[in-house]
Amino acid sequence: MARGKANGNGFSNHANGNQLISRTITGLKRWSIINKDLPAVSQVRAIHVYDFDNTLFLSPLPNPQLWNGPTIGFLQSLESFTNGGWWHDPALLAATGEGMEKEETRAWNGWWNEQIVRLVELSMEQKDALTVLLTGRSENGFADIIRRMVGSKKLEFDLICLKPEVGPNSERFSTTMEFKQTFLQDLVLTYEQADEIRVYEDRVKHVKGFRDFFEDLNRSLQVVPAPRKPINAEVIQVAEGCTFLSPVVETAEVQRMINSHNKSIRQATSNATQSPYGRLRIKRTIFYTGYLISNADSNQLISQLLTPLLPSGLAESNDLKYMANSILITPRPAPRSILNKVGGIGKKLTWQVTGTAVFENKVWAARVAPVPATEKYYTENPLPVIVLAVRKGARPIDAGKIQNWHPVPAEKALTFETVVGEKVVLRVEEENPHEGEWESQFLNKNRKRRHQQERDQDILHTIIPVMVGAAAIMMTDCDVVARTAVVAAGEERHVVRATQAEEARVVGPVDAMAVLLAIDPWTITLDMMAVTKTSLDRVVLDPS
């Protein structure tokens, strides 16, 4: 039975006509996943309602360091996977931090919005306030984990309400907003003596939706007779933060979702979301192959070479895009012929800055030479250069047009080490049986479907800089992961041994594994490394 809007008397209109709903505290409790005695109607003068995701709790989002833009939306869409997307899979929330077993003992320390936590505690202390946690997470999937998370933080709510499959009055909800508005109407009309209600929410679209809802409700309550007087409603928008899972854990969890989806599509009865997609897989998009520069050296290049060249005020503006992260080899995946020329993925090479230049006050670059000068290198640019920064709208490729270079003094002839690698992000797409390993590295431009996601009917896509590192993630369908991954790169072998905690976070909860194969010449921690690709024919798993 579909939910109806409030009629002139503030009651719900149902499909079988206007129906007067008897509102009682007992009926209101049916919305909640906790069995707690509620205060009498006469005792409540204020109602405080808190959203969960990114309002009270800093729920992890898909990491744009790992995934391309379309995949960020795809992961969050309800229909992408047969069992639902990012916001519908309890395992993703349970994977927050170091996993539920560890985090529960320390109350998910560091993952809460402590300002909102303090407000909840003040609500708990206020004798005439009713304190409510309201989230669009599904009751069937998330009741246990959210109850445990809130309990570990010692937060006491009068009501904890998740989106049910069927509401207390046989309602069915097509959206989170529809569910929340139905509940809020029941809440306000049950506690008819409350003078005010405050709703804390992070999403702009939901903030507007709640404000419009209360305006409409109060307008309907001005008609006589009315079930209660209009209520003073305030909707407070909470600044949304950005938190992410460990890259290793996140990729493993997405692979687990894909494996579950691929098994479910074989049976129509298992496709709970009516997903239109066939078998899915994780693919890589390679932006370029280059001599990658560490974060520390990149910062030094910017501070010592770029900053003195910038016009006054430009560094503080939003008009500048900092780069200084690589020396280009080729603006695409490098074929084997080019990889052979540069010594293969993982090959280290030392460089020295020999000059700087500016192109049309839009592109700032540094010219470099290998150390020693006889060392072999390859670049498709006229000279080996580092693009230090570009103005917005300018093209880094224009650095190749620079003719006049200014020699640098000896104290600015910086020397630094690079490693041959690829700038890569991952994407989730349908399998293509006619697509080989080489073709799969390029974005499928025929996939024009736009992905909406249930959490806000808008794609959450946070733009943050892609970090440069040298790690590789290999997707497999195996059930066992060796603790040590050995990557042969040229004549060298780099071994990275995962800690037991890191291994447990990947191996423990999933059937399909994501193996972190790392080349880490700059001792960057696993959590800080971006994802690049090491050719699978170079990978050997150490059975130890």
Automatic annotation (TrEMBL):
Question: Which segments constitute the Swiss Army Knife RNA repair protein HAD domain?
Answer: 59-263
**InterPro entries per the UniProt record, alphabetical:** SAK_HAD
Output a single Gene Ontology CC term carried by this record. Answer: box C/D methylation guide snoRNP complex
GO annotations under biological process? box C/D sno(s)RNA 3'-end processing
Name of the protein = Swiss Army Knife RNA repair protein HAD domain-containing protein
A single Gene Ontology molecular function, please? RNA binding
